[in-house]
Amino acid sequence: MADVLKKVPVREQDPKVRATNFEEVCYGYNKEEAVEEASRCIHCKNAKCVTGCPVNIDIPDFIGAVKEGNFEEAYQIISKSSALPAICGRVCPQESQCEGKCIRGIKGEPVSIGKLERFVADWARENGIKPAPAAEKNGHKVAVIGSGPAGLTCAGDLAKLGYDVTIFEALHKAGGVLSYGIPEFRLPKDKVVAAEIENVKSLGVKIETNVIIGKSVTIDELLKEEGFEAVFIGSGAGLPMFMGIPGENANGVFSANEFLTRNNLMKAFRDDYMTPIHHGKKVAVVGGGNVAMDAARTALRLGAEVYIVYRRGEEELPARKEEVHHAKEEGIQFHLLCNPTEILVDENGWVKGMRCIRMELGEPDASGRRRPVEIPGSEFELEVDTVIMSLGTSPNPLISSTTIGLDTNRRKCIVADEETGQTSKEGVFAGGDAVTGAATVILAMGAGKSAAKGIHEFIMGKK
Ligand SMILES: Cc1cc2nc3c(=O)[nH]c(=O)nc-3n(C[C@H](O)[C@H](O)[C@H](O)COP(=O)(O)OP(=O)(O)OC[C@H]3O[C@@H](n4cnc5c(N)ncnc54)[C@H](O)[C@@H]3O)c2cc1C
Ligand code: SF4
Fold first, then answer.
1. What Å distances lie between residue 281 and 130, 157, 327, CA to CA?
2. Strands in 127-202 per DSSP E
3. Which of 59, 378, 429, 432 has the smallest number of CB atoms closer than 10 Å to its CB?
4. What is the DSSP string of 103-138?
C-alpha cells in the first residue's frame, strides 16, 4: 500500500538526456497512477482547495470522478470552469494556489491537483472529447484583443453564453505567452496549446491573427464602425525591461522575450526552420523568475554553459520551486546574491564578459522582501559571450495611447475593476497582464472570466 501522506510520484525525462532535447520534461500520470493519486483526496465539504483556484474549478468533484475512473465526467466538470486545463495542469503555480490550501498538505503532501488536471485534459484530448457546445447565438458581437489566457478565457465564456466573439491577435499565431514565451519542453505547442485553442474555437470563437489593435484598427473604430458592443483588452505585458548599465547595447545581449520568441514561436531550435538564433557558449541569464529559468534552460539545450545571475538569495527566487529544481538538475549554475554592473564588450562590439558585484540582504523593502545591498569591493568578472536580460516586462503602451479615455496607472497598466474588468471607458473591459503587469496564466484566466461576466451584465443591461 502506497504512503497516503505522499503524492504518487510523476515520471520525468532523465535530466542528462533532456538537457540536450526540447521534448517535454514531465510525462504526467498514467490511468493507474491518476486513480491512485485521486484516492488520496478525502472529498472535503467546503473544500479549501477550490478557494485557492482563481477560476473556481470544482476540484473535489473532478477528483472524485477520476477516483471512479470516470475521466470524461471529470473533464466536463473541469471544462465548466476552465478552457485551458492541459495548459494549467502543466504551468500553474499550484503549490501556492489549490494545492497550497489542500487539507492533505497539513500532515503530508497535498493532493497532486495539477497533475490530475493535466491527466484528465490529456486523456480527453487523446480520446476526442470536447467541451460541452455553446448556447444558441444571442446576436450580440464582442471583440477580444489578444489571444493569451485572458483573451481565450473571456472569449470562451462569452461564446458559451451565445455571443458572437472575434479575437484580434497581433502575432501570426494565437496563444500569447503560451505560444511565444513558455518553451516546448514545459508546454508542447502543437499537442497541447494548439489543441486547447481549437477547443475554444469549437465554441464558435473566431480568431483573426496579424491584426494589431491601435495600428490596423483602433478600439473606437471597433465600437463605432465594426458593430462590436463591447471590447475586452487582454493584450498582456510584452515589453521587456533592461538594467540601463554600460555595455547593454552590445551584440550578444538579448531580452528573454526576444530569445524565447525566436525559439518557441519561430522554432529556431529546429533544423527545418530558418530562424536565426545566437548560440552562445557561455550564457548569463540575469533574473530569477520563471522567464529566467525558461531562457536559461533553452540556452542550455542549444549547447551553452549557463549561469543564472540573481541579486537576492535562493529563498527569494520568484520562479516556481519545481522550475528551479529542474534547472539545477539539468546543470544550470546559480550565482545568487550577485548583480551585474557592466557588460564588457570586445573591439568588435560583442559581449566578452560581465562585471558583477556581490550582494547581501538588508532590511525588507516595499515588496516585503529583504533588500539586496552591494558589498563594497566585492566586484568580479564573469566570462560570458551572451547575456539574456530577464528583469520583468510591462504592458506595451500602443493600445492605451490610441484609445481616448482609457486610464492607465504609473506602471502603464490599464486601470480596470477587479470584479467586472470595466475600464474608465464605457464598453471597454480589460484583464490579465495588461492590468496587473506580468503575473500568471491562471490569474489572467480568472480576470478573463470575471470580465466575461462583466461584459454580459453590461450588454444585457443596455437592452
Ligand atoms: C517565458 C515565460 C514563462 C512563464 N511561465 C509561467 C508559468 O510557468 N506559470 C504561469 O502561471 N505563468 C507563467 N508566465 C506568465 C504568464 O504566461 C502570463 O502571466 C500570461 O500569459 C498572461 O496572459 P495574458 O492573456 O494577460 O497575456 P499574454 O499571454 O501576454 O497574451 C497577450 C496577447 O495579446 C497580443 N497583443 C498585444 N498587443 C496587441 C495588440 N495591440 N493588438 C492585438 N493583439 C495584441 C499579444 O501578441 C499576445 O498574444 C510566464 C511568462 C513568460 C514570458
Ligand atoms: S482540500 Fe485536498 S483533500 Fe480536500 S477536496 Fe481539495 S484536493 Fe481533496
1. 45, 46, 17
2. 141-145, 164-168
3. 378
4. GGGGTSPPP-HHHHHHHHHHHHHHTT--PPPPPPP-
What mean pLDDT do residues 426-444 have?
A: 97
User: Which triple of cell numbers denotes residue 243?
Assistant: 538594467
- Nearest ligand to the C-alpha atom of residue 399: 1
Assigned C-alpha cell, 263: 525559439
What is the number of other CB atoms lying within 10 angstroms of the CB of residue 331?
Answer: 13
CA–centroid distance, 328 to ligand 2, in Å, is 31
First vs last Cα of the chain: how many Å apart?
Answer: 61
**pLDDT tens per residue, range 15-63:** 999 999 999 999 999 999 999 999 999 999 999 999 999 999 999 999 9
The Å distance, Cα 170 to ligand 1 centre, comes to 12
43 lines ligand 2 (CB under 6 A): yes
Examine the pLDDT at 331 and tell me if it is beyond 80: yes
Residue bearing cell 510523476:
10
The tens digit of pLDDT for each residue in 286-327 reads 999 999 999 999 999 999 999 999 999 999 999 999 999 999
Give the type of residue at 173.
K
Supply 83's cell numbers: 478552457
Which amino acid, residue 376? Answer: P
H/E element, 295: helix 290-301
Which string of DSSP letters, residue by residue, matches 18-59?
Answer: HTT--S-SB----HHHHHHHHTT----TT-HHHHT-TT---H
